[in-house]
Amino acid sequence: MSESSLSVRRARARPEERRGRGGDKRERILDAAVRVLAKKGFHSTRVSEVAKAAGVADGTIYLYFKSKDELLVSLFEDRVERLLAFLEADLPRAGSASDKLRRIIELQLGLLEGERDLAEVLTVILRQSTKLMKKYAAPKFNAYLDSIARVVSDGQATGELRGDVSPHLVARAMFGALDGIAMTWALGKADRGGLSRASGQLAQIVLRGLAPLDAR
Amino acid sequence: MSESSLSVRRARARPEERRGRGGDKRERILDAAVRVLAKKGFHSTRVSEVAKAAGVADGTIYLYFKSKDELLVSLFEDRVERLLAFLEADLPRAGSASDKLRRIIELQLGLLEGERDLAEVLTVILRQSTKLMKKYAAPKFNAYLDSIARVVSDGQATGELRGDVSPHLVARAMFGALDGIAMTWALGKADRGGLSRASGQLAQIVLRGLAPLDAR
Amino acid sequence: MSESSLSVRRARARPEERRGRGGDKRERILDAAVRVLAKKGFHSTRVSEVAKAAGVADGTIYLYFKSKDELLVSLFEDRVERLLAFLEADLPRAGSASDKLRRIIELQLGLLEGERDLAEVLTVILRQSTKLMKKYAAPKFNAYLDSIARVVSDGQATGELRGDVSPHLVARAMFGALDGIAMTWALGKADRGGLSRASGQLAQIVLRGLAPLDAR
Amino acid sequence: MSESSLSVRRARARPEERRGRGGDKRERILDAAVRVLAKKGFHSTRVSEVAKAAGVADGTIYLYFKSKDELLVSLFEDRVERLLAFLEADLPRAGSASDKLRRIIELQLGLLEGERDLAEVLTVILRQSTKLMKKYAAPKFNAYLDSIARVVSDGQATGELRGDVSPHLVARAMFGALDGIAMTWALGKADRGGLSRASGQLAQIVLRGLAPLDAR
DNA sequence: AATGAATGAGTATTCATTCAT
DNA sequence: CATGAATGAATACTCATTCAT
Predict the structure, then answer these.
(1) How many separate domains does chain D show?
(2) How confident is the model at residue C7 (pLDDT cuts 50, 70, 90)?
């Protein structure tokens, strides 16, 4: 899988928004929003700042998004949703449960590499909007956690993974671990390649930890 | 571990602030703040709501705290700091590195059991105050992560833990996993005993995952 | 001297601020501010009252002025500064020192005739803003006093005025006398023509008082 | 006239307030008020600051004065009223109208020499309280102005002063001149002896200016 | 579609005053 | 008399949103 295929920034706008200048204006606003949000946080980000960063008038924002909250929701839907969909779509290609878990780890961390602003928005800023967390993020997170949990329970069924742990617990812990790593990376030095290295080590620990007991 | 010994809510107020009627007023305000913050989030919480919940006048808040921000900072210092101090103080009692890691997991999750509001404040609300995150929380988190990392590297030195993983990575991942579990618990159903069960399973996975390679 | 040429209220707004509806809005706010300030005083004047009197929304005030203090400063700069500049510009036209002093008296009182609210703002309200008094007004007053003092010392040099009094003392006393007359007029009955009459009499007293000793 | 006889600060408290500690507490509060008002101005002066400067509790202020406004009114009545009464009482001693006017000038400026804080309160701070200006000060000022005007009109009746100027105008101008001199002195360098010198020069100018026309 | 001037609802904080001790 | 902790009314300013152009 080529890194570029994961690029969120380059993702195509919906066809109906491509006509005229309108199509890329929506994109320009979302791009600007990621930049400003990463720097200022949700509550300190002013609509007028996003407008200025996007090179449009304040009012123009409201031609594309119903409200400031809606802008963040759209950001979430346009960016994160596609990421999550991508992860799920990619999983079947992997064979064993171990391969799938390793893939999940690689993808979740790999996606953020090179998109530091986006990483910060997803791991930190997103949580600053209580509404978004409770109304939008939670269901998506749950769906994502469910798909991880399914990989685990499938692996348990085939005897590939230990059967004495709750698949959902594993999913939450894995997601939390990945999120924690991404967060410290986003807030910290964010060195090139840091996430890739982390990805490998975490996979080894997780897979060892989930190996069947008799594999000892 | 006795639950009561960990109770934050019952922690004694500083003696010098007990004089007159003022002493428990500070406590009442902090208690009210935890309740309101957990329900509304930082930015949606009105100072007047906290005052009402505490049964004091708006202005009284400002006799005990310099500002709304300062109130959250004080909450953090009065509650969280003591929690973290408690964790670090408890560690030396455990013998092996494995015991210590297990203890960390039990404590971090155990502390929140029965203090759902506090758990939500710590895992969710805290991150809504950019100022708090950057000026106060970050250093504390780092100190805490460092103490976990030290346990790991000590264990690696004695050969008790596998040596091919970065202690800091392990610390971040562990903290993230614990935080993720606590967050879904705080935002979700939060069933009695859920965290205790989770605690045991997570410990098993982590310790298996960190066992020396030749232990296979 | 034609009255209209001195009218402050009719002074043209800066061309670049005339575009759209904004141009006269700034003027409307300043006009409203003079009216409300004269009636209420600086500290009892609410920004919302000025807004209402100007027929604009509260927030609109802040599109034109940075703060309530800044509004008073702008009032000062837009009105008083121009007045003082006018006085100084007019002086050279007069020939002798006596003519100049008479002119100063006529102008300072004549300017306020018909602008009672403005007179009150200048003689009373202005002094209610400590900041304005110390940071803005004081230097302007000093400059004005200096220009009066210069007229006196020039007159002394040519032997036209008595040489045994301090030019600066004369300036302060003259300004004080004019200010006192204007203040009692503004706070009192403020009868039509009162200031003009006062102007003539004061000039006679001052000029007699400053005549060279040997003129006796 | 000895300077000390004019000292406002040393003026005896009313007999009924002399008992116990109460009597000097009222004085201490008024003294503190003068000091704080001179430094901060009326609206920036906090009741608690006056209390602290007086060495009493906030609530104690209200045992002696009904309100903050009332405190300033009392200050005015205790200090200024007595000053004005003193001036009026002193006038009859002087013989001619010229002597009386000279006396007024000497007294009004002399009183403030050495009492800079009080001078600032009287010339600047007093005007910051619109209520005080309109409800209390105005009548007193008028009474004072009237007594000056009477001196002038008496002098005109005896032919000692020129008869072609309005006595009230002269009073206003004289008061304004004195006030202007005091104000620049209070706000400026306030050099020792400055007011005495000013006093002499101003008297010469005023008396020359008011001399009968045929005296030329 | 795009603009950006105008709007006005919403809130943290101050401080004169009270009153239980 | 004295205290000072507690009160709560009062207000400048911000910023998401609208709409005439």
Answers:
(1) 1
(2) very low
